[in-house]
Amino acid sequence: MASAAWSRSIGRPWWAAIDRAIPVLGVCRGAQLLDVALGGTLHQHVPELVGTTAHGAAPPEFAAVDVDLDAGSLAGRLLGEHARVRCLHHQPIDRLGDGLRVTARACDGVVEAVEPS
After folding, report:
1. Per mean pLDDT, which range of 21-25, 51-55, 96-100 is the poorest?
2. Which of 12, 17, 20, 48 is most buried per CB count within 10 Å?
3. Is 53 a residue whose pLDDT tops 70?
4. Closest Cα partner for 95 from 41, 43, 48?
5. What is the mean pLDDT of the chain?
6. What is the DSSP letter of 53?
7. Rounded (10°) CA dihedral 102, 32, 81, 85
8. CATH code of the domain covering residue 55
9. What whole-number distance in Å separates Cα of residue 88 and Cα of residue 17?
10. Domain range spanning residue 98?
11. Can you tell me the distance from the alpha carbon of 117 to that of 113, in angstroms, rounded to the nearest whole number?
């Protein structure tokens, strides 16, 4: 778990972009970093959460998962409502950080993308 000071320092650029209405899209590790930077938390081990290693066994073995996207989101406008994406998750998002919304989820519920709400 990141320290509060680290979370505040890493969060400054994200909040600056959000405050200026600059589009921000966090995908895979970017979603995790954005989430923690804005006060969210991560599950510590994805296989314990979903019961499978479908999100990537071990580097460099990326998995391919089907995701559903929010059609009105930046991710949805770029990729459509459904996409197959490459991922390698060990720690998926648990509790969303301040001001974020989930814009893509795998069929097992793992968050794949977040954007400012």
Report:
1. 51-55
2. 17
3. no
4. 41
5. 81
6. -
7. -160
8. 3.40.50.880
9. 26
10. 4-116
11. 12
* Amino acid letter for position 73: S
As a whole-number percent, the residues of the chain with pLDDT over 90 amount to 29
The tokens describing 35, both together, are 């989430």
Tokens of 17: 């972009």
The total number of structural domains that make up the chain = 1
Give the span between the Cα atoms of 94 and 15, in whole angstroms. Answer: 20
d(C-alpha 110, C-alpha 52), whole Å: 12
C-alpha 44/C-alpha 42 separation (Å) is 6
Strands 63-69 and 100-106: antiparallel
Q: How far apart are the first and last CA of the chain?
A: 24
Per the document, the length of the chain is 117
Quick one: average pLDDT of 83-107?
88
pLDDT of residue 1: 46
